[in-house]
Structure formats: structure tokens, C-alpha cells
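note to self: dont lose this again. the chain is below, predicted strucutre after it. 220 aa total, dont forget to put it in the shared folder this time
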Amino acid sequence: MEPDLETWISIGISLLALSISGATAWLTLFKKGKLLMTQPTSIFFGPDGGFFESTRNKVYLRTLLYSSSRKGQVIESMHVTLERGETKQNFSIWVHGGQKGDLYRGSGLFVTHEGVTFNHHFLLPPDGSDFKFLAGNYTLKVFAKLVSEPKPTQLFSIPLIVTESQAEELKQKQAGLFFDWGPDQGNYYSHIDIKSEPDFDQFIELMANKEIQPTQKTRG
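---
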């Protein structure tokens, strides 16, 4: 006896439900996807730290990292390269942090489908080398090494320009160059920011007051 129309409809619905379940499982559990990043809203060339800290140059950027699939991505490490003509420099020390200012040495980061936004600081390797931001056309490339991949993956390539006047100002100890993304024009607007050094005598007086105040409270 051949199946009637209702039986065929039931079979079709069951097969459709099974296909949907399989597709959902593949998208959520098995599809690897890719690690992606948004256009960095801010990029910085300049010294790492300020008063009493290292003044070796670094590259900073802020961006959102996200996975193209429901299955997250595990980043083992990140680094950037900066190219100007035939010159190429790796900034291989990766430090990241959030809005509160807490910074952590990059030693693994889980990136979800919804994404994670961090400030990323890339410092020069500790081999004594330094890098000067001279005038010219630069290409900034961002790389991430995933746990499951043998080699780093390039996430982004960004062309940037350092003018002659900006390169001259960057010779100052506290000077840094910011590139702010303009979504309406689709390019970066650059400007120099010079951080003023705190007065040394005021700094010493402030630290001394912090040490004295608890003692006075205890005596009272």
C-alpha cells in the first residue's frame, strides 16, 4: 500500500526539520569561520608611557575583533608590522586593555561572534632596537596567530602618511601622532599631541603628602 498524501507531507516536514537542525548544528558547533576586525577608530604612533616610563616608540590602535561564525576564535598572539619603502619593522610585544585603563600582556584572547573591543598596544621587541617615525608613506599591517593555525593571519592593512612637519615634531620626547578615522570621508585625520611633563617638585610633594596623611589619622 502506497503512502497517502498526509504521510508524504509528514515525511517532508520531518526531513526539513532534520535539515534545519543539521544546518544549525553546523553553523554553531562545526563551522570554523574567520577572525575579523573592524576599521580601527584610532591609531597612535609615539612613545610608550610618559614620565618615569619607557619612551621607546610603539603603535597603538583600538578596534573590535569578532568571529564570522558562532564558534569563537582563540587568539594566541598578535603583532603589527610597519612598512615605509624598503624599511619594515615588527612590533611584536602585544598588550591589551579596556576602558578602565587596566593593561595585560597578551597571552591568549577568546573572541566571540558578538565581538570584543580592546585597546591594543604593540611594542618593540626587547633587543635594543628602536624605530623612528620618519616622514613618508606607511603601511600598517595587523596580524593574529590563532591556536589552530600554523602561521599568523593578516587581519588588516592600513595606509598612513607621516608628513615632514609631523616627523620633526615627533622628535620631541612627549610627542605622539594620532590618526582618527573619519567614516564620512573614509580616511584618517592625523594630528600631533604633545604631552606636558608634570612638575617634578609637585610630584614629590604629592607623594610625600600621601605617605603623611595615614600617619596623621592614626595618631588622631
